[in-house]
Amino acid sequence: MLILEAVNLKKYYGDRLIISTNDLEIRRGDKIGIVGENGAGKTTLLNILSGETDADTGVIKRYCSAAYIKQFSDENVNTQGKLFKEFGVDDKFDCQKASGGERAKLSIAAELSKNSSLLLADEPTSNLDYKSIKILKEKLSKIETIVLISHDRDFMDTLCNKIIEIRNGKLFFYEGNYSFYKKQKDLRIKRQKTEYEEYIEEKIRLEKATRDVNSKSKSMKKTPKRMGNSEARLHKRAVNEKKKKLDGAVKGIKSRIEKLQVKEKPDKILKVKIDFSLTNPPQNKIIISSSNFCFKYNKNEIFHNAKFKVYNGMKTAVVGDNGSGKTTLLNLINMQDEQIYTVPKAVIGYFHQNFEDLDFDKTVLQNVMVSSIQSESCVRTILARLLIFGDAVNKKVEVLSGGEKIKVSFAKLFASKANVLLLDEPTNYLDMQSIEALEDFLKGYEGTVLFVSHDRAFINSVANRVFILENEKITEFEGNLEQFEKNKKVSKNQENVYIEKSILQMKLTEIVSRMSLKDCDKEALDKEYQCIAKQLNKM
Question: Where in this protein does the record put region Disordered (predicted)?
Answer without folding.
Answer: 211-231
